[in-house]
Design brief:
The structure holds 2 protein chains of 2 kinds. By secondary structure, chain A is α/β, with parallel strands linked by helices. In chain A, the strands form 2 sheets. An 8-stranded mixed sheet of chain A has the order 2-1-3-4-6-5-11-7, with helices on both faces. In chain A, strands 8-9-10 form a 3-stranded antiparallel sheet. In chain A, helix 1 crosses helix 6 and helix 2 packs parallel to helix 4. Chain A starts with about 25 loop residues before the first helix and ends with a strand. By secondary structure, chain B is α/β, with parallel strands linked by helices. Chain B is about 35% helix and about 20% strand. The longest helix of chain B is centred in the first third of the chain and has 21 residues. The radius of gyration of chain B is 27 Å and the shape is globular. The chains are: A alpha/beta, B alpha/beta.
Amino acid sequence: MAEEIIYKPNDFKTDQDVRWCPGCGDYSILKQVQSVLPEIGLKKEDIAFISGIGCSSRFPYYIDTFGMHSIHGRAPAIASGLKATRPELGVWLITGDGDGLSIGGNHLIHILRRNFDVNILLFNNEIYGLTKGQYSPTSELGKRTKSTPFGSLDHPFNPLAVALGADATFVARTMDRDPIHIREILSEGNKHHGTSFIEIYQNCNVFNDGTFSVFTDKATKPITTVNLKEGEPLVFGAENEKGIVLEGTNPRVVDLNSGDYAKDDLWIHDPTDRTKANILSRFFDDPREEMHFPRPFGVFYKEDRFTYEDVLNEQVDKARADLGEGDLDALLRGNNTWEIQE
Amino acid sequence: MDKVTILFAGDSGDGIQLTGSQFSNTTALYGNDLSTFPDFPAEIRAPIGTVAGVSGFQIHFGSTEIYTPGDECDVLVVMNAAALKKNLNRLKARGTVVLNLSGFDKRNLKLAGFGDDENPITDGTLDNYVVTQMDVTKLTRDRLKGSGLSTKEIDRSKNMFVLGFIYWMYNRNLDTTVNFLREKFAKKPEIAEANIDVLKAGYAFGETSETFSNRFEVKPAKMKAGSYRNVMGNQATAMGLIAASVKSGLKLFYGGYPITPASDILHELSRHKNFGVYTFQAEDEIAGISSAIGASFGGSLAVTASSGPGIALKTEALGLATMLELPLVIVNVQRGGPSTGLPTKTEQADLMQAIYGRNGEAPIPVVAAKSPSDCFATVYEACRIAVEHMTPVFCLTDGYIANGAEPWRYPAAADLKPIKARFAEPREETDEPYLPYQRDENGVRPWAIPGTPGVQHRIGGLEKEDGTGNVSYDPENHHHMTKTRAEKVDNIARFIPDQEVDNGPDSGKVLVIGWGSTYGAIKTAVKEMVAEGYSVGHIHLRHIFPMPQNVGEIIQRFDHVLIPELNNGQLIRLIRDKFLVDAKPLNKIQGMPFKAGEIKDAIAQLHND
């Protein structure tokens, strides 16, 4: 082990002016990432942030590590090539709902199934911000935007269900208005050996202001959200008066004050249970309608599975052990040669 | 007899490619110079017995130097009626036909599209040829009677009968193929021995059937002294990449997506992981190049390969690599286009795509290989330019040379030109801010890779300020950076060898300028015409962009310029643009290589003007 590294959050700031709109949710996320980085045990030069295109993808400019602000949607593929060949680096991928789920949707599902050990932060603001206000693949049905003056016709993506469908090994959701929660999730995601997919609800105060306020405002948050904690029951409500029971594969909201249910009857959160994680990801009611289920925040699912870079490097090492280190002259010569004399 | 062209043709399930490649290997070891041209059907398994399902393998070999797979063939070997129907027009007058009689039964004749009363064997179609017929299926079954193999297994070895017969015709040794069969069927020795048995039966058939009064004798060729092997184009490309990795000391990363006719590069590389080769079969073409850019950012020798439609998909990422000024090699094994075009046929129609096909001003150097073995040196050169000049580089080959084979006087590893990467040095936190785009005297920035203390930096596709690499919208800076990137690439011309006249005089009436796989046909044409007294010279460009500095001087020494291309005229536009010369085109867009005769006609016409 090299000498101990002691960084402060400010050590990860760059000399670049941060150019997001005043009041943007991105500021809070940037601050929490900068505050988590000193704790991960890597030197600055051993960390790389890779992003695509969009407001969130400006992120690498503001972190004093290696960084690449690449092209639209391709960050997962770029990060894959980097991590495959430099497995010792800490690689973070910054994307958004348009970058990650629309133009880059293909790359996203493939990095998840391959399980490279990278942290993916998907800033979901349910709108295209950089192109000034078109609906995104996570915008709600009927949304009126510049490109949908009569309302969007697109059924929205459920990002966590997409990630689980692609066999992601770490799936979590957090929100920009809850810095402590972001820190917890970032920290846990970074510890996970494999791809960590973290969806962050992020307010775009210019083009989609308040889209998540029902989940973030003090008045409504207790009843519209449920905080997932490993080994603890799913309770919510201002007085923790509501809970969720799981009957077979059917979840149901119950009233703990009715006397019919006690905390012991509730669904105990187990993030290693894939089936339950799938059910949780379907707590996705449209907040404009009458909500049946609260929106979960926290770690939905985690699983230990080999990473792509580990098995790739093992295969290369094994080839070297089995076949011997490559001999260029032998390769060029091949198996059948002949001599031509003067 | 100093050279012969044989065309093996049969159903795609008849093992034609294997028969052809075995004959090539044996012939190469015998010491003949040779050139081959496989011609696959477009479908994996087209309907059996039909013309659409015919697979061909042409080999041209001789005791003199051979540059093309031959225009017309001397010997046509056909396994069925469809193969004859498709290829008879490629046989020289009074040429030899070797045919499998059982492939001409009623059913096969009908499948090949012959009418009820038509049978080329009996209706006079073959009157002007020397015909040898044998019932290969029956002879093979007879030989293996009692072998315990099923009829299906027995019939699979019938190509060995034909191969054995052709070995007898040309007085070849069976050892190479015998060894090959024992290795290939190491786990099924009974199959190996059955095939060997049939191979020998075919040879013996030649000896005993008294078919030919004379056997053909093609003596070994007089080639430059040295050690030789046989090599295919895509194989040479893969070896060139590995060699560049070894010589530069860089890890080789290949990100790609399967596409005809480039996939064999991926196949070949993935066999050599003991060289520290990292192959990554990506989810699509875009991820192929993007993963390579990620690996290059991390300090690896990064490569992607594809063919035209795949290259089109990679275009945006090529722009990114240009902005990032990172090394990257892009191999385009060209095929007929546009769109899906002719995937199994050859063409040279992606030159403009390589040189200009990006948004904005994004100059990328382009080199092109001229023959199967030349893929090695050309892709090696592409790697050298990419690493030493910090730029993406295109390496163009095509389906013709990618699948073709020829003898190769292979180099010794020690004789390969060194490739030197220039990495940024570690720095102290207290040093001045790091400048990732500070250039050396050749306009090249250092390769600052993660893990190097003090050189953290952020780069991307947005225009950047020279020096700092910070995002910049400054008008003067954009003008300056565009010019700077262009100069960096132009400057590469100072680091490449002068163009040599390949053949013919240094000055005279007609200069033929070629690039890529037309080399063999042009070489043959010019050589013959020089011998016939024409004043004609030939230069063949490996470096197309930037070009060697003396190309303009060479052009000025000739009265006329002829540019043969397998496209509708692409290099000719570059030459006219750069040198304001009234060059004349010779275009062929048929998915097939030039015949030397076609080029000779065009030279003669210009010469006599």
